């Protein structure tokens, strides 16, 4: 289970960013960006609340700059929020981030490996950090390397592997400790079809094992293929959410015709932008 309640996060704005924002705004003292932005800070996340349940896949959708990655990094305890609460498998991630990390696997599209270590050594190092016992490690390692088709590359240095192969090693490293919760941040971005399918299959396997899965993506076909629940994120806020079928059932145009998920997503973002534009001075 992942529970996010009233999460907020702001970042300082550089002098250059202030100049750029001032140029976009009719009033130089105000930013033209997110609600809650000031002359010196930008509010990346503004009161986000959602829940991801075990045995289900939750998709976080939003345009570039919506704040999705910031939310996921806070869930992964890589960033500390300014306010709000995060619970990971029953653990307060703010009060005890170490315990939260033990229950969590986090994979991004920019995940890096130790290039001087072999594929096997990268995965074993992660297992040792999580205190995985030797018999459990061997069993999980054999299953993962077999499922991902990376057994033949186990002894090769990570720096010698292709981008897709590196991502497969990163997958194995992410779940070698058998986490209860798995988070994917644009994990298939820029990958070839074979590597992307490996991640999609892993998500399906995690759901079948009763794990909680949260992922962000720009690829609508992945959402319709994988998601049980979703939230549409925009300028640091949750615009809409619920079960995938529930969201699609509400996506009806003025003629009573069903919209696609992509059409409904665009409609929600356009409506939010229009409302924000009307609210600006």
TrEMBL record:
UniProt KW keywords: ATP-binding, Nodulation, Nucleotide-binding, Transport
Leader peptide range in chain numbering: none
GO molecular function: ATP binding
Classification via InterPro entries: AAA+_ATPase, ABC_transporter-like_ATP-bd, ABC_transporter_ATP-binding, P-loop_NTPase
Domain ABC transporter intervals: 2-260
Superkingdom: Bacteria
The UniProt record lists the keyword Zinc-finger: no
Protein family (similarity comment): Belongs to the ABC transporter superfamily.
Name of the protein described by the UniProt record: ATP-binding cassette domain-containing protein
Organism: Nannocystis pusilla
